[in-house]
Design a protein that fits this description.
Elements lengths: L2 H5 L2 E5 L4 H12 L3 E6 L2 H15 L3 E5 L7 H8 L5 E6 L14 H29 L2 E8 L10 H21 L4 E8 L5 H6 L12 H4 L4 H11 L5 E3 L2 H5 L5 H20 L4
Parallel strand pairs: 1-2, 1-4, 2-3, 4-5, 5-6, 6-7
Helix pairs in contact: 2-3, 2-9, 4-5, 5-6, 6-11
């Protein structure tokens, strides 16, 4: 199957108005897939949709939703309810910054809603039709922060770890159904949000964080996500960068396969 047959006719890109999501949406459209862009900024969404229609000759729909709102998931599902969705890319994120106890509890709860609750609901709803059709794709965009805890981003890193492990489990469970799932762990990327919040003080070279000083191009990252779809369960924007945080794609695949073999055996041998 070519890309459009396997992951079309529609892709839903959450966090699709700018940055990595916009790059992934444009790449999907260039491969013949219609796209739904979901984000908060209505005007920017419409601009993106117009550009996609003009540049690639596919359909594009803007869906203005604040993914932190209590009804966010239901609004997304209603907005795509008439479409045959073959690909979901969850690139949206809430990113509270500050020492855990100094941040208002509401910020931590928003983080949980956007990074855990909403993607869980959407995957549960959108993956089922993909399984019935025998093809499709689920991408949860993660972060190098998911591989360990860290100051200032403690609840954000924890939430990204949830997305990561969920994606790996889905990769193992859905593969035989023809549905590809994976987590793409991005490092520093020159998105609008990153450029706006980058501190003036540079990270010292001895800490080895070269990626923070030379962030990746978001359009290139978006394209790479689609290039790697189907490999899974975890892929990285920069393998050298990821290795520095103890992450390795081959090792993750082996670990997920081993754990899945154990847990599936236990499940099938359970007492009725």
């Amino acid at each position: 199957m070519d890309f459009a047959d396997r992951y079309g006719p529609w892709a839903v890109v959450l966090g699709g108005s700018a940055g990595i999501g916009a790059g992934a949406a444009d790449e999907a459209a260039s491969r013949g897939v219609n796209v739904v862009l979901v984000a908060r900024r209505a005007e920017l969404l419409e601009q993106r949709c117009t550009a996609i229609r003009d540049n690639h000759g596919v359909e594009a729909r803007a869906l203005t939703v604040d993914l932190a709102a209590p009804d966010a998931a239901s609004r997304v599902l209603t907005g795509v309810g008439d479409l045959d969705v073959g690909l979901m890319i969850y690139n949206a994120a809430a990113e509270p910054r500050g020492f855990f106890l100094e941040l208002p509890l509401d910020e931590h709860l928003t983080n949980i809603a956007v990074n855990i609750t909403v993607p869980t609901v959407l995957v549960h709803a959108l993956a089922a039709p993909m399984v019935r059709r025998g093809h499709g794709g689920i991408v949860l965009v993660g972060s190098l922060g998911q591989f360990q805890g860290g100051k200032v981003f403690s609840s954000y890193f924890a939430a990204k770890a949830y997305e990561w492990i969920l994606a790996e489990g889905l990769w193992s469970e859905l593969a035989e159904s023809g549905v590809d799932a994976f987590c793409y762990a991005v490092g520093a990327t020159a998105t609008e949000n990153y450029r706006g919040q980058l501190p003036d003080k540079k990270v010292p070279e001895e800490l080895g964080a070269e990626h923070l000083r030379n962030p990746a191009d978001p359009d290139a990252v978006g394209r790479r996500i689609l290039d790697l779809l189907g490999r899974g369960p975890t892929e990285f924007a920069n393998s050298d960068e990821a290795t520095g945080f103890g992450a390795d794609a081959a090792a993750r695949r082996a670990a997920v396969e081993r754990m899945s073999a154990i847990t599936e055996t236990i499940w099938h041998e359970r007492t009725p």
